Amino acid sequence: MQDRAEQLWLATVKMALEAKKKGVEVSAALAILRNAKAMLNEGRLDEESHGAAEAEAMIEEAQRELFLGAASLPGFEKKWQEVITRVQRGEKFGDYPLGVSSFYPDLPRDGRWVRLPLTEAITAAMAREVASRHGLGFRIHQENHFILTGDKAKIKKALEVLSKYYRGG
Questions:
Q1: What is the pLDDT at residue 101?
Q2: Which run of H or E residues covers position 113?
Q3: What is the pTM of this model?
Q4: DSSP symbols for 135-147
């Protein structure tokens, strides 16, 4: 039950994001989904908890909110009803994010830095060269990421260069 509830939560979050992009007010649904995620996380920590069942009820409430708000969007309800039905049958929608921490104690303290992943297209040597070309500091962070530090405008220009490689172009 826990896994199904987590998959329903994930699908419903994606549904809310799509509705929001199309101009639908989704703040009430997102608030419900935040509470549902807390219940799901509690259910993972305490197997005797009824968190999954309570979370599913909350998720259904969020879905109702979204379907009502997006009633004027053509094809929205049909598309997402099909997704929800498949998830309820046990189909996996995606990977549920279990409280993954994004706090890294060894990052720079000021706001003039960016942390990016190294990829096949963006190697450490290439990232170092882009940093040098834009007058930025560079260092490897946790083996598969790198950090650029420096002036905000220079970081922005470096990101414009790097974004082409992240997009595959």
A1: 45
A2: strand 113-117
A3: 0.56
A4: T-EEEEETTTEEE
